[in-house]
Amino acid sequence: MNGKQCSMIVLVCVICTLVSGAPDSDAYAQDDINSSRRNAIVRAIEEVTASVVTINVVEIRRERVVDPFFHNFMGLFDFHFQRPRVRGRAVESIGTGFIFDDRGHILTNYHVIEKADRITSVSLSDGRHVDVDVVGADERTDIAVLRAQSDDVLPHVRLGDSDDLYIGEWVIAIGNPFGAMIQDPQPSVSVGVVSANHRRVRREVGGGDRLYQGMIQTDAAINPGNSGGPLVNAHGDVVGVSTMLFSKTGGHQGIGFAIPVNRARRVADEIIRYGRRRNPWFGFRGEAVQQVNPYTLQQLDIEAESGVLVTEIHQSSPAYKAGLEPGDVIVAVNDEPVEHPLDIDYINWGLFIGDRVTLDIDRQGQQFRISFHVEEVGVLTG
């Protein structure tokens, strides 16, 4: 066999190899596409969706109406002589929740059930309906806990760590934003990133009664009906409870907020254990230094230009036992600057019985710190 014949044989072998390998290459490419389609986000959604529930509630609104018969036939009389009557109008609303343990406990927002006269149904994504009991709720942290009445072990989520979040990491909001417009029970999902963490929402947003501090901000679409639903990371762990959106139109504008799951979990644990959220207590009252009469500040030798002036303190309180006195100015709590009593209230509401608190004090120009452990709420008696 000469060299030319050998070269031809080698060329034929190469061509045969390339041809026979083409189908395998297509298969590998298809596998890569399928792998990229079923990514971490898809897997996370598959893990959590079965544990998400739809909460349907009814509020009976009472309205005063005038009897049309009386109005038509007795119209000669003045309106004040007509006989208005009161009737109830059923107003339906919808929210979301998720099962978070093997005992069937459901976590949601308090405002989902706040005005409800009854919970008409709670349905799972597979179409099953379960009856529920209201275990308890905490208005300030906007958390409520229900419990499904079921002999079956229901699917439940895995709670993550909201302190372990990266700005820019993917998160998924799962909920029921469409309500009765959609016939099937499966929840909707939207994907975005963690836009910011530890957000402090203005007091006016919650009317001064809700702890919307330390919130997770996301551009994942959170719309009405999503309230109470899980905010999930790419591992399939719940890191937040979708709670509110900022919008000038009522629709999604890329600014949504979720309660961090670490806080929600502690509130839920208290509700399950005690039937309520135990109120933490500092045991003093105060007034913003900037709102105190300058003459009074001068008489008390107060040099601080901002902070909260302690005006009243209970002698059995943990703060008093730690050394706090009337006339002290609190300038920071747990290293967070404070200028108004509500600033202290918000920090207080985020704490739990037994948590350690550190106050930065200005006492007639001298700065020092005191620490104590939070106790359950007491009553100031003067």
Descriptors for this entry?
382 residues, alpha+beta, Thrombin, subunit H, Pdz3 Domain, 6-stranded antiparallel beta barrel, 21 strands, 23% helix
In brief:
With 382 residues, the chain is an alpha+beta fold. Helices cover 23% and strands 37% of the residues. The radius of gyration is 30 Å and the shape is globular.
Structure description:
23% of the residues lie in helices and 37% in strands. It has 382 residues and is of the alpha+beta class. The protein has 2 domains: 39-71 and 87-277, Thrombin, subunit H (Beta Barrel); 280-376, PDZ domain (Pdz3 Domain, Roll), CATH 2.30.42. The strands form 4 sheets. The protein has a 6-stranded antiparallel beta barrel with strand order 1-2-3-6-5-4. A 6-stranded antiparallel barrel has the order 8-9-10-13-12-11. Strands 15, 16, 17, 18, 19 and 20 form a 6-stranded antiparallel β-sheet that branches. The longest helix is centred in the first third of the chain and has 35 residues, at 3-37. It is globular. The chain starts with a helix and ends in a 6-residue tail after the last strand. The mean pLDDT is 83.
